[in-house]
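Hey, sorry to bother you again with one of my protein questions. There's a protein on my desk that I can't quite get my head around. No rush at all, and the record is pasted right below.
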Amino acid sequence: MRNILKNKTMVLVILVLPVLLLTACGGVLNTNTKTDPFQDVDNMGAVYALALDAYMEIDKHVNEGMQYIALDVVLPEITEEEEQYIKNHLKKYNAEIKEMTFEELVNQGLFSQETYSLEGVYLTLEEAEEIGENEWLIHGTKFRGGMEINPMEAKIKFENGQWKVISSEIKFI
């Protein structure tokens, strides 16, 4: 009788203890194991990074030989964590990431008055407009050379469990 009671206690401990340990902190078992930020509906850093990727895909030849990406984020609602995520994401372009305004690029001599160009690509994130449930229109710019900075738009939507670029284009004035 003693062995039966001992075995039942052991089974109870084996089955119940892990559940108690997993749910003790906060009272709910956290089953969110997503590690891909593009699968996180709440990760706006992923939305902004995808918008910048979309800008980089437009006039792709402009990116050739770039020494740096100058990133100018003027979104008032962006967090430091999101901005850091964006900078880390942009490293995939194998160029130095600089946080600079266009004026700072000019003042530091990185804009050639002779050729009206940069040695890198200047990208901005200027406005994030929620246009639907989990759907954003991100406004920004891209510049490498010439007489004007190109206004850009990218539509990003969360569908089928991840953030995706739906469309992107240069917005000619």
